[in-house]
Amino acid sequence: MADIALAAETPTAPPTKTTTRGGTTLWRYVLIRFLLIFPTIFILVTTVFLMMRVTGDPITAALGGQLTPAQLAERIEAAGYNRPLIVQYAEYLGGIATGDFGTTIDGQPVTEVLVRYGGATLELAIYALLVAFAVGIPLGMLAAWLRDTWGDAALRVFAILCYATPVFFAGLLLKLVFSVWLGILPSSGRASPRAELQLGRVEGATGIYTIDALRTGNPALIADVLQHAILPGIALGLLTAGVFLRLVRTNVIGTLATPYVDAARSRGVSEFRLVRTHAYRPALIPIITVIGLQIAMLLGGAVLTETTFEWMGLGYQLSEFLKARDFVAVQGIVALLAVIVALTNFIVDIIAAFIDPRVRY
Amino acid sequence: MSADHLAVEVTGLDVTFATDGGAVHAVRGIDLDVREREVLAIVGESGSGKTVTARTLLGLLPETATASGAVVVSGTDVVALRGERLRAFRGSGAAMIFQEPMTALNPVFPVGWQIAEGIRSHEKISKRAARRRAVDMLRKVGIPDPERRANDYPHQFSGGQKQRIVIAQALALGPRVLVADEPTTALDVTVQAEILDLLRQVRDEFGTAIVLITHNMGVVADLADRVCVMYRGEIVETAPVEELFRAPQAEYTRALLAAVPRLEIADRALRGGEDEAPVVRARALEIVYPGRFGAAGFRAVSGVDLEIRPGEVLGLVGESGSGKSTIGRAIAGLTTVTGGSLDVLGVEMNGVRERQLRPHRSGLGFVFQDPASSFNPLLTVGACVAEPLIVQGEARTVAEAEERVVDLLEAVRLPADFARRYPHELSGGQRQRASLARALTLEPRLVVADEPTSALDVSVQATVLGLFQDLQERFGFACLFITHDLAVVDLLAHRVAVLHGGRIVEQGATAQVLGAPTDPYTRRLIDALPVPDPVLQAERRAARRP
Amino acid sequence: AGDPGGSAGSGNDIIVGTTDTVTHLDPAGSYDNGSLTLQTQVFPYLVNTAPNSTDVVPDLAETAEFTGPSEYTVTLPEGLTWANGNDLTSSDVKFTFDRQLAIADPNGPSSLLFNLESVEAPDEQTVVFHLISENDQTFPFVLTSFPGAIVDEESFSADAVTSDDDIVAANAFGGPYSISDYTFNELVELVPNENYSGLVAPAANDSVLLNYYAESSNLKLAVEDGTVDVAYRSLSPSDVEDLSGNDALTVHDGPGGEIRYIVFNFDTQPYGAATDEADADAALAVRQAVASLLDREALSSQVYDGTYTPLYSYVPEGFAGATEPLKEMYGDGAGGPSAEAAAEALDAAGVETPVELSLQYSPDHYGPNSADEYALIEQQLEADGLFDVTLAGTEWVQYSDDRVADVYPAYQLGWFPDYSDADNYLTPFFLTENFLVNHYEDAEVNDLILQQASTPDAAEREALIGEIQQRVAEDLSTVPYLQGAQVAVAASDVSGVVLDASFKLRMASLTR
Amino acid sequence: MASATILDRIPLVRTARQAVGLQRGMLVAGLVLTGAFVLTALCAPLIAPFGYAQLADDAGTFPPRTAPGGEHIWGTTIAGYDVFSRVVWGAQTALVVIVVSVMMSLFLGVLLGAWSGYLGGWVDRVLVVVCDAVYAFPSLLLAIVSAIIISGGQSSLFGGIMATAISITVVFIPQYFRVVRAETVRIKQEAYVEAARVVGASTWRIMMRHVLRNATRSLPLIFTLNASEAILTIAGLGFLGFGIEPSAAAEWGYDLNRAVEDVTAGRWWTAVFPGLAIVLVVLGITLVGESLNDLADPRLRTRRRRLARKGSPK
Ligand SMILES: Nc1ncnc2c1ncn2[C@@H]1O[C@H](COP(=O)(O)OP(=O)(O)OP(=O)(O)O)[C@@H](O)[C@H]1O
Ligand SMILES: Nc1ncnc2c1ncn2[C@@H]1O[C@H](COP(=O)(O)OP(=O)(O)OP(=O)(O)O)[C@@H](O)[C@H]1O
Ligand SMILES: [Mg+2]
Ligand SMILES: [Mg+2]
């Protein structure tokens, strides 16, 4: 992530020669950018596949020592892990292309795991992003505005602290304060047991509790779900908020130093408006790009957050599968993450292209 | 003259910047006034305080600056102005036009919006009305189809158009004073001529007083009514424009005017040597830059025929983007030739491999446009100059090459101890001289010089050009001299080639091409070039007008 | 967290929190406590240990007894039905055991049925178990444990582990409860099964919600703030200690069957049979020295805050026949460590000190305290310069692989009994064919173990068990050192928490 | 003047001299924290009263769970380890992991990046896509997976530390690669590189003399940012139980993991000290890194300074 920050802190180069060449349109760009998703996914999936297999077949990895050699051999045979790696690889790729991510050691299709727990992680990520946006962007603008004053220094240190505090430590402290000492917020889980039971019974449940709770229209249920989301959302959100704060600050300062801001100033545009409009919008472009990369960090952080708060999502499952050495499941989840990361980056680039009239390939 | 006819009145302005390295006294007690409907030009070398003065007029100095004295613009004392009142003054009292139009426009907002924003900061009017005014303004500055184009983003306009938009932005608020800081420096001569016309029109139509900052004496001669010469933060001379050019009083002014290259059209065609094999011969040369992701490539140079004989200086002129640098780089083997033939020092460059080329490199020198960036910041000047020797195996270490390096530095009139300095410890002119020395290290038969003086001040440029001329005569190398300044070509080149849109439109002896151009484009180029003589320039302008 | 939707059971609904996990709801596919806890609530057992006793009494059965040396006959009352309405007859019982043996799932408990030859159902109400060896005193106990859960032959597959979802969908339950809502390892709702009749009184509560936690600290907070009413298995020692000071909560203790011990691989331990300097006496001396150096008190108080107690025998306290031979034989003779005794033993066998010992433990399988436990053991062994220990932790998956492949000379293991009989602490370990695979064999011990298992007379059997413990203590196949306790923490207004040697928490008795 | 120039050419010194006001304050604060960390790590044997796995001294076994004060100034853990000693020793582990991992990734990443960026072509494109893909991937996950594969579940001291270091290396290589490659691509087009090409310098010479040295100028900055990320990654691994065992070395993340139950029981000291250690070290290193970044970027350097540079063209 260090580099993410760097990349985005590189000045938004003032638009230099912008030639619209050979009729390259935005749509062409979208198409090309879309096609680029596939090599990315392909490489990630391949990397993961190879990493998972250098140690041997998944059955031995997970069950070796618990089964007799004969039983092992039988299961390996049945699962086809005794075939040449390249064949398995081809089959694996084929599976992914058709949406089949394999089966876990205890026989669940990975897709089922993904469907079941994906919603929870998505929900957590959204809460975290909300916190990150709500904290990072205004404070970042404030810091840019207060640039080189004590207020700025304090905000910057706050940003670094957000980033420097491991999610699990932050989670621990939050729990200590809000659950143990103040006793006002629940310490773990996505809802209290009874509420969870009710949510599970909602017709056509999405697995995203906030939505399910809203659909029941039961205020107690909604409150319960929201209460449970607060601490995990903050713990994970602050991590990203720190990064956003820094990014917004540097980019707004960067754009504040550009001649067009000076030009606007010379026209009598108010200082507030300079920060709010002239500097912020161009500064947003690198920020949006970084959000794409933040998704990766967010998912990594989700593993820790979900473990700390027992948020039954993909991150939590992933760490369980890793502990159990269930490499097929890991491979599947990771492949899904690869798809998500690649897709988010795609979407983010497209959004950036729409916001920034200059980006054209 | 009564005060209300003065649009700007500056008395005893003094500006100091606080820095760690002590105070920088940028402007030292200057007096200045501009009447309504008057164009006052401020000239002077780089760093003389022109920009600082201009910015003071709008109260745009950074916090670290302390200004004293009185600056009364449109009846308001700007120095004392703060906060909301300063904001209200900016734009309506005085407006500013910046040097680089592309950076003065916010890339992510439509231009119409940007103009309207200024209007709405000053008047309480509806969005729609503001937009209507913006469109009007765009029409006035000559943007075709303004209703539609108001919605376009800055990058969708050409450089000249962008400068027009910037001017429209400034004019939209009806300021009494327009401050223009080098408004045409970034533009081609033909575009520059249009913008100068527009400014003149603005003055006539709106009665605006204009403070024009420039270092181009041609521009001064073209537009200014009065001129103010600055030198090291002080005004050394103020005079009406004809007077200044006719009889400059201050010594500095005289030196400045003397350094300005003029189009005199001297016949300097190279005699003899017709039968010697040319060092460069291009036939139907074509260079295409590859496109991205299978998009069609960009044809920067097409069908160029060109010859440079030994000892000959060929001036290559043309507007920005016409392909001048591309040809120069192709000759040096830095850009791949994609079609036709290009023979350099007996090597066919089309399809050449770097390895084949390397032994012939010693016959070629290259002088880059920006002296600052053409030196590795981590190596001493001596090491840089010695590098060709080491690379070509004529010396093994920098120390071994020292003698030769000192000779070379002397040739370009740099003291020998400069060899131990780092590039950033040299001034721009000195660096360019070192760069010349490096190009000459291996006594090449051919030198490619890509706008070697365009980054320098006129006075520095004059010294470097003089030196270049001397060296060329002394070493007798052939040279491709790339420039956009016709006057510089006139000074140096034996022959001139005019490039337009990647094609050579005219080629021949300097006197012939510049004196009696046959091609309409060449003619336009020469006509658009403002001459540093107000009387002559007024005539040329009159002649140009239909 | 005072929200109407979620806080701990209102009325007579009880929420139980646990850190256990279920592997399979199907008794043929699981052999672990987490699964057993749930199975106990929803499946019927023919016989069971009565609350607060170790005697086996009929549960679902009307009568259950040996009707011959190798014939155990059970009769069922008439008119039993499953929660889904299917009839519960002897053929279900036969089906249950036949399928256990047929499936023999590697993760299942079928190995406990090693002595079962066949099951016969002569009529609807009678079941006859034919045993291989005679007078197997442990067989009734086996019926109370893992493989003893009876399943519905119409809902379960005869030759494969049936999936949890299918079981729940078929409502194939016959215990005190049936499952009305099932989210694997997250949340399970149990509602009383009206068709149940057996040893346990009908459910005293309206429903039980089982909530699974991953971290004991979260479970602890949940029981503390009232999100759950009862926390059962497994709170960390320090959590328990902390909660015991809370007035709103009651800490319930029960006998613990869990033990911790160090296994020596007789082939690869120092001076082991397969080493270059093989020397049986020296090898024994090394084991003796270890036994003498362990400070069990320190381990108990330092690492486990007293929730684990010192163990000086193979059969833990609370089981009929348990003795404490190691207490006098090693250390200072009173349970404390003794460096002199250890040095003496080593010296006598001519062993050079310090002995280099490589000791392995699993950082993840027996709870996070294992790391501390073994750090302390290392320190105890090294304190007097008699040992030079190389300590290494290996994750369980790898560990269970390596341990049986003679990779570790000495290593940590724990044991949780399958049923509450002393035999369960002897047979699996010290028969020539044992699950430790540590190459320990002693023909006499082997015979004694087989003999006690078929001795119907209780006093005689206890004497045999005592003798076996004494013999093994001399050989030191393993060095046991800690015994766990069962702990449940419940809100003070919850009653009916019974923790006994059956190691089953019966949720039906929980009430508020 | 001459000495000032030489001094000015050393990255850290130059920037420290350039900095003013608050920016200097932040840089100095960062340097102090980082320096304290490095010193603690190097002098751990002298500073720590006990060993990281020590459970008893001559006076007997340490009492577990004692509050700060007395013989154990920061208290003891559940297991009876001295918190202060473990935090001090933990600095050593962290430093070793940072140094090993960052060095390895620096070496590989820089070489690959410069090579790929300068030569371009097919290999470059593939490498870029691969690195981008890996880079876009949650780094903690990558580290976990690598840790499992490398350590095979074993936890010896060397194995544990190396596994952690190598897995972090895997994560970082793409970062160095990206930065160095981007710089190389930029520098490749600089006039001074073209100047060298024009005189016929060999590719190798250009790479070594002109490109590499200039391309690595931003590395101190990335180095610091990566170092802080490395700490967070080890801590994350330790927290999830994929890291280093307590008997092998002291590791803050692991200690925090073990402190979870303490926190809920109100024993704050076992969590707060290692947690603060992580936070402070990351804070210190990041402050240094950010200050370097600011100072390297004229737009971010404090205004006063920016003008000062323009202001003395002597
Ligand atoms: N913000 C600033 N802080 C410190 N010194 C400054 C600042 N702005 C300008 N100066 C100094 O003030 C002097 C005048 O600068 P100014 O920009 O007015 O020159 P100029 O005449 O416009 O030159 P040019 O032709 O290169 O634009 C220079 O020495 C410059 O270094
Ligand atoms: N690397 C490149 N890839 C694609 N197009 C290029 C590249 N370099 C230059 N061009 C395009 O080729 C054309 C010719 O460029 P060139 O640099 O030769 O112009 P020039 O005459 O030197 O202009 P200037 O006076 O601005 O230096 C321009 O339109 C430019 O945009
Ligand atoms: Mg200027
Ligand atoms: Mg050019």
In brief:
Chain A has 361 residues and is mostly helical. Helix content of chain A is 75%, strand content 0%.
- Percent range for β-strand residues of chain B: 15-25%
Largest interface: A-D, 67 and 66 residues
Helix content of chain B: 25-40%
User: What distance lies between the first and last C-alpha atoms of chain D, to the nearest angstrom?
Assistant: 13 Å
Structural class from helices and strands of chain B?
A: alpha/beta
The radius of gyration over CA of chain D amounts to 23 Å
Q: Helical segment tally of chain D?
A: 14
User: Which fold name fills CATH's third level, the topology of chain D?
Assistant: MetI-like fold
- Rounded mean pLDDT of chain B is 85
Report the uncertain regions of chain D: 1-5, 303-314
Count of beta strands of chain B:
20
Helix share, percent of chain D: over 70%
Description:
The complex is a heterotetramer of chains A (361), B (546), C (512) and D (314). Chain A is mainly α and 361 residues long. Chain A has 15 helices and no strands. In chain A, α8 packs across α11. Chain B is α/β, with parallel strands linked by helices and 546 residues long. In chain B, 37% of the residues lie in helices and 25% in strands. In chain B, the strands form four sheets. In chain B, strands 6-7-8-3-9-10 form a six-stranded mixed beta sheet, sandwiched between helices. The N terminus of chain C is likely disordered. By secondary structure, chain C is of the alpha+beta class. In chain C, the strands form four sheets. A seven-stranded mixed beta sheet of chain C has the order 8-9-10-1-11-19-12, covered by helices on one side. In chain C, strands 14-18-13-17-15-16 form a six-stranded mixed beta sheet, sandwiched between helices. Chain C contains 15 helices and 19 strands. In chain C, 57% of the residues are buried. In chain C, α7 runs antiparallel to α10 and α14 runs antiparallel to α15. Chain D has a single domain, classed as MetI-like (MetI-like fold). Chain D contains 14 helices and three strands. In chain D, strands 1-2 form a two-stranded antiparallel sheet. In chain D, α5 packs antiparallel against α6, α5 crosses α11 and α6 crosses α8. The chains are: A mainly alpha (361), B alpha/beta (546), C alpha+beta (512), D mainly alpha (314). Chains A and D meet through α1, α2, α7, α8 and α11 of A and α3, α6, α7, α8 and α11 of D. One adenosine-5'-triphosphate sits at the interface of chains B and D. The site of one magnesium ion has 2 residues of chain B, from α1.
